[in-house]
Amino acid sequence: MNTKLNQKLALSAFCLFLVTGLTACSTTPAADKPGAAPADNKDTATKPAAKTKLTYWTGDRHDADYIKEVIEKFNTTNKDNIEVELVVKTEDFNQAIDLSFSSAETPDIIRVKENTIQTFYKKQYLAPIDSYLTAEQKKNFPAMIDLNSFDGKMYSLPNYGTTMRLIYNVDLFEKAGIKNPPTTLKEMVDTAKKLTEAGKATGSYGFAQNFKSPESALGRSARVIAEVSGYGGFGYDFKTAKFDFSGFKPIIEAFKQMKDDGSTLPGMESLDIDPLRAQFAEGKIGMYMSFSSEPGVYKSQFPAKIKWAAAPVPSIDGSIKGASGFLGGQWLSISSKSTKKDQAWKFINFMYQEEVLQTYHEKGFGISMVPSVIAKAKKPDIGGIEGFLPNKVDGVWPIQPIVNVKGIKYSDAFFKYMLSGGDLNEVITDLNKRYNEALAAGVQAGEFKVSPMADFDPAKLGGQFAK
Q1: CA-CA distance, 326 to 72, in Å (whole number)?
Q2: Which of 438, 444, 446 is nearest to 404 (CA)?
Q3: Residue with more model confidence, 235 or 8
Q4: Is the pLDDT of residue 39 over 70?
């Protein structure tokens, strides 16, 4: 891990303004050999070659319909007799990948993200792609260290990024007499209570999050609240090079208060992200937090029956002391266990065509990180996208070390407190101890290097993408 902040930010800023130069790549079939078999002799006619079948696993459901269309086009037009099967998984994606690598049923292409690519790399799930890249491609797609490349090798190319926002039910807000979305934790708690009161007749509640997976739920909500409040979204303090979860205390207390108030959707602890979206589209949820992929979801996957909008997430006290994490920089990788890596790369090349990436942006599935695409693409014609466009607060944070902590993870510990109560100070003290022990063990084992960044200022990270 590179611990120099300026180098990190320079690399991030440089790499997020990429110019795509990929074109579809295919092998020219060999010319027919001389010699002719009788046209009417079926026994001697050449049989069609067997298809090379590939599997592409993704945890993204919001763009599945479009990706299926692109894959179908590839399957019917590629001249290499390749057929790709799309396998969509959601909250169990990481576990499914782990299980596949302990068996013989691994995918050929894997969707990687900023919070998975490092782990997948360390587990040796990914194959480097440097040998496939031309000199022009290497120039147009320079690597972001710890996001695209590790130890000098490239593992994925960028496509798009996502902003994080508070998504809210405008109709329910108006019914409750609330003019603006909350900007502080206190306002969020009060707003959730008012929305629940206003929604009694229709069974609507003020707040929900997909707590079937606490890691996913807090990653969509508490993480970004912490970031705009000046704290590392995963508990890591870049100034001290130590883990410190104390900044999460008021955030988790606010989440618990909403639950104690009866302001959260009943059964939230078993709610996955798609069922949450379905409930929101029906008007049963007042607000939640998630990525900029939501507009596409409410246009096609779960057509919204309500008027809705997106706003910046609240900070702890209303002041902005850090950047709202702009996530992204990866998309497709080749499985290290794939026996058909060459064919997998041909599919990836096809997916990175400018036409494919431009349509992806215009349909609102993600905000393009490729300037040539942005220059040509029309503004996404999709309701609610305005609230997700990059602003002066959005920015890329440095990469924190991913540690192998013993015992319960911080997301599960915080969710357990939300459900059962207890002493939150003790919970945080325990998390700090165990995470810093894991950090020290990782440094000693040579897994990464860390050092304090005394001049680190999270407020200066914002505005990297605002026009």
Answers
A1: 31
A2: 438
A3: 235
A4: no
